[in-house]
Amino acid sequence: MMKNLIEAINMDKNNISLRAIVLTAVGNVFSAGHNLKELQRSSGIENHKLIFNTATELMRSIIESPVPVIAKVNGFAAAAGCQLVATCDVITTADFLLLGEPISAREAYEYGLVTKVVSAEQLDTEINKIIENIKYKSRSVVALGKQFYYRQVDQSLLQAYKLGEEIMVNNINTNDGQEGIRSFVEKQKASWTHE
């Protein structure tokens, strides 16, 4: 399953018409995590290393995706399934969610684990709103913002400000940076080149 997700996330990452990726599941389990049978000692340490290396590659694929990866959580998420959810850029969940120790979606929101909690009936509508919002933005500027976020996380506050300074100067000098400024000043809809 993890290899399939890695492949799906990376498949069209250079296609400028790709604007977002939504990870979801069918049924009442979003992800229960690793197959514990594969983690028994009898599977061997090399197999264990491969499993966790693949999990790391999956998380890296999400982080390095140039478009936002959205978790549409419509059921139980535990262990590595919770890690998968937490790695996504935007996390919208129906108002039920269990993470190992049972916690509600509302508690997960209060802890900062999820972005938004809606009723199960509103989940599709909310995800569509998020995607529509992303579609009206420059893909290249969104990608730049995502890259900046992950680069600045491990820096001191001053280093992060300096990096932000550099990225903002570079951003406003891109075609889409200038188009965003022009469209705002002229109160017109932007015409993005995604460059």
From TrEMBL:
This is Enoyl-CoA hydratase domain-containing protein 3, mitochondrial. GO terms for biological process: fatty acid metabolic process. Its main location: mitochondrion. Pfam families: ECH_1. It comes from Leptidea sinapis. GO terms for cellular component: mitochondrion. May play a role in fatty acid biosynthesis and insulin sensitivity. GO terms for molecular function: hydro-lyase activity. It is found in: Mitochondrion. Keywords: Fatty acid metabolism, Lipid metabolism, Mitochondrion, Transit peptide. The keyword ATP-binding does not apply. PANTHER family: ENOYL-COA HYDRATASE DOMAIN-CONTAINING PROTEIN 3, MITOCHONDRIAL, PTHR43602.
